[in-house]
Amino acid sequence: MKSLTSVEIRKVFLDFFQSKNHLVHPPSSLIPSNDPTLLLTNSGMAQFKSYFSGESEPPSKKITTAQKCFRTTDIDEVGDSTHLTLFEMLGNFSFGDYFKIDACKWALELMTNHLGFEKDKIFISVHVDDKESVEIWKNIGIPEEKIYLFGDEDNWWGPAGDEGPCGPCSELHYYIGDKDPSSFKDLEKEDGWGPNTHEDFVELYNLVFTQFYHHIDGTRTELPNKNIDTGMGLERVATILQGKNSVYETDLFSSLISKIEKKSGFKWGSSSKNNSNLEERSADKAISVLAEHSRSATFLIADGVIPE
Ligand code: GLY
């Protein structure tokens, strides 16, 4: 696989969707505007809620962005290899323009032909009631055994905040274990092997089929249009394309980690079980958390969230 810097990955994504007639739109602040139901921008679609609901007109029916996002809900996972409070979400959006077929087709084309992921290692999750998406994935070359069905907990997205657009989703997961794809056939039958359930899989790209509006009273109504809202995590993609095991080893974190190493005197990456020095082993997690929180706090402060 070709190694790409995070700057190159962002450019490949935006250029790809620009070539499919999407408007490259600037990201919004981490502080949502005009949305009292959302504390911090948590997704690429947050700034576009009124375009999905039909309350206002988008500047284009097809938009692409690289959006800084903050998810307070992931704070307890920070320090593992994939979860961050602040991350960058690459997204493509359709406001009543294309729907499932193009969203799935372009996602696969981008992942395999432009970012260089191996098609054999891509697995798909689909909402259990969404038979249409299963057929679409099969028609574009994903074998049925690589398509896994899940309920609302895994394959329903939104709303962002207490109300707003939402819908069933389909995700592209990538196999990061060390088995050869030719051995997948046997593993697929094993219980607990596959996306969402096994640690050798990482979720990279979520395609939301935004068809509903979730109201503050808990009811849902159909939106006037069928829309697309997607999100691909830049840090996770960088981890894989740069051949690393953790977001902290990517170019997005390397300068922060080396600064903390210099200041603390501890070296990141000493957590191997063979290291008998317990202090060094636990320093890894502390360095990761410090790097993550200082990065996310910097972005928050830059957008006007001032600590008191
Ligand atoms: N809005 C899509 C996502 O956050 O995955």
Index terms:
single chain; 308 residues; alpha+beta; nine-stranded mixed sheet; 9 helices; 9 strands; 23% strand; binds glycine
- Rg calculated over all Cα atoms: 20 Å
Percent of residues in helices: 25-40%
Oligomer: single chain
* Unreliable parts: none
Please report the distance between the alpha carbons of the first and last residues: 46 Å
Shape: globular
How many strands? 9
Structural class: alpha+beta
In DSSP terms (H or I, runs of 4 or more residues), the helix count works out at 9
Task: Determine the strand fraction and express it as a percent band.
Answer: 15-25%
Task: Explain how this protein is built.
This protein has 308 residues and is of the alpha+beta class. Helices cover 31% and strands 23% of the residues. Strands 1, 2, 3, 4, 5, 6, 7, 8 and 9 form a 9-stranded mixed beta sheet that branches. Helix 2 links the parallel strand 1 and strand 2. Helix 8 packs across helix 9. It is globular. 37% of the residues are buried. The protein binds glycine (GLY). Glycine binds next to strand 8 and strand 9. The site of glycine has 8 residues, from strand 8 and strand 9.
Question: Topology, pairings included?
Answer:
Elements: H1 6-19, E1 23-24, H2 49-53, E2 62-70, E3 86-94, H3 100-114, E4 122-127, H4 131-139, E5 147-150, H5 152-155, E6 156-157, E7 164-175, H6 184-187, E8 201-214, E9 220-233, H7 234-241, H8 254-264, H9 278-302
Parallel strand pairs: 1-2, 4-5
Antiparallel strand pairs: 2-3, 3-9, 4-7, 6-7, 7-8, 8-9
Bound molecules: glycine.
